[in-house]
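Hi support team,

I submitted a single chain yesterday and got back a structure, but I'm not sure I'm reading the token output correctly. Could someone confirm the output below corresponds to the sequence I sent? I've pasted both exactly as they appear in my results page.

Thanks,
R.
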Amino acid sequence: MEVGGKTEAITIRAADAGDYDDLMAVWIASGSEISPRGRDSRDAFVAHVEQFPGLSFVALSANWIVGVVLGSHDGRKGWINRLAVLPGHRRRGIAEQLVTACDAALRAAGIEVVAALVEADNPASAGLFRKLGYSDEIQVYYFRKLSRPDA
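Hi R., thanks for writing in. Yes, this is the structure output for that exact sequence:
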């Protein structure tokens, strides 16, 4: 990837518990809705990477985290969650690399169905998943019930 006349080397690696602060910074800068006292707390993130080792990934440029994706599964269906790339690093294929790494790891774990939820007002993400061969032919309603407002 070329940035300002220089080639930007991107490295994809598995996320680990020590990445938490950098991931929060990426999500905040990307405009992602976060719940730092709930599902996006440090404890929740550490539990996630321990429960699903090798399924979440970060993208690094010059040893700085510039993108993230979290993977999980229920033993039957895999989920690609919380995909974000810093605004200054978008449109360079980083999200594609992250999704591809997560998808490959889920399939290597024996998961045959991999899904992602994309909000209706996010055409860039919808386009990325379509480009990568994901189908949006199944229309669903998304229901949720929070145990507390900041969950």
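A quick pointer for reading it: The chain has a mean pLDDT of 92. Let us know if anything else looks off.

Best,
Support desk
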